[in-house]
Specification:
The chain has 353 residues and is of the alpha/beta class. It has two domains: 218 residues, Alanine racemase (TIM Barrel), CATH 3.20.20.10; 107 residues, Beta Barrel (Elongation Factor Tu (Ef-tu), domain 3), CATH 2.40.30. The protein is built from ten helices and 16 strands. Strands 1, 10, 11, 12, 13, 14, 15 and 16 form an eight-stranded mixed beta sheet that branches. Strands 8-7-6-5-4-3-2-9 form an eight-stranded parallel beta sheet. α4 crosses α5. It is elongated.
Length: 353
């Protein structure tokens, strides 16, 4: 089969989705399945829905349009603040969007009125991750400004963790978020239907905290796809971690000196080993295809360097990989997202055991 390719096991994705939907559902928390890392691929989206997840979310309108054209009719949310240039498409294809700017919400309302519909808005609150969000002290005044915009319905509030600053969702912060929801409802005479408390990084808190407070929704992508918790990278018990495997082909394998007599100026060289020569193999993919720092190599193989379309690996023993051999690589979220969007990586699907 052609390489490089991603081998994608839809059964394992479905089972991960089912486990999380059932586990969190028993705790009163809805799962919104996030498809942005897989470019909204319809087959993967359908596997997530078949696992019991009832709604999806993505950050790119092109991904959402792709799912709609494939016949996916469940509610889909835009989880990145909408681009003004895409407002009409977002209102047409998304029941809900996550927002932080009044000017954007006004445009959403205007587009909704033209389409004779009502668009749901969830306001993102920055609880310390320092990416998107309204500051808690400004939330009341923001709601009072936007609550009467025609064509808009305020559905609730959301927050995010462990994306930009790496701030984990501690029990204390989650309690603060619930308290903020209570105070805001009381002070603005508003009722929130949706309190979206974060993403896959929230799973340890959600599963182990005694009280979930007001949180009734989590936006889950990485845990469904890769079976790991984003902050630690550790496996989540009960989930598959091998639903995606990247297959790379060896295009060169030679014993070479560890150093050169010439100045080392080539991009990707990472340093010297304590031996004079070593087996170096080159894989036929590179920075254009994935995030090499997010790859996990088989035992006995170490990453050495990367260029745009070559990954160099080293072995301290005689190479067991001939030219044309395939090497199986595991991926983290960053590597998966880049590989799914790379046009030269074949996506191969199965529903096997």
């Amino acid at each position: 089969m052609a390489t490089p390719r991603l081998e994608i096991n839809l059964r394992k994705i479905k089972e991960n989705a089912h486990f999380l939907a059932h586990t969190l559902g028993s705790l009163g928390i809805n799962v919104t399945g996030v498809t942005k890392a897989v470019c909204g691929h319809p087959d993967i989206a359908k596997a997530i829905l078949e696992g019991g997840v009832k709604e999806l979310a993505d950050s790119r309108i092109s991904n959402i349009t792709r799912m709609r054209l494939a016949g996916i009719e469940c509610p889909i949310s835009m989880i990145r603040s909408p681009l003004l240039s895409q407002i009409n498409l977002i209102v047409r294809h998304c029941e809900t969007s996550y927002n932080t700017e009044i000017a954007v919400i006004e445009k959403l309302g205007a587009a909704a009125r033209i389409l004779q519909t009502t668009h749901n808005v969830i306001l993102m609150v920055d609880m310390g991750d320092l990416r998107e969000g309204i500051t808690p002290k400004d939330l009341n005044s923001f709601i009072l400004k936007m609550r009467d915009i025609p064509g808009i319905s305020l559905m609730g509030i959301g927050t995010n963790f462990a994306c930009l600053s790496g701030l984990p969702p501690s029990i204390e912060i989650m309690n603060e978020f619930s308290l903020l929801a209570d105070l805001t409802e009381g002070e603005t005479a508003t009722t929130f239907k949706r309190i979206s408390g974060g993403n896959s990084a929230n799973l340890p808190w959600a599963i182990h905290a005694c009280s979930k407070g007001r949180t009734n929704d989590l936006r889950i992508g990485e845990a469904i796809l890769l079976g790991v918790e984003p902050v630690s990278g550790e496996k989540i018990e009960g989930l598959h971690t091998d639903a995606f495997v990247l297959i790379a082909e060896v295009i060169e394998s030679k014993i070479k000196p560890i150093t050169t007599d010439h100045p080392l100026i080539a991009a990707g060289y990472l340093g010297k080993e304590n031996i004079s020569s070593i087996t170096r193999s080159i894989l036929g993919l590179g920075n254009q295809d994935t995030d090499p720092e997010g790859l996990e190599f088989p035992d006995g193989i170490n990453f050495s360097g990367v260029t745009s379309d070559h990954i160099v690996v080293i072995e301290k023993e005689t190479s067991s990989y001939e030219v044309g051999s395939e090497i199986h690589l595991r991926l983290n979220y960053s590597a998966l997202a880049r590989a799914m969007s790379a046009p030269d990586i074949l996506k191969s699907f199965s529903f096997s055991q």
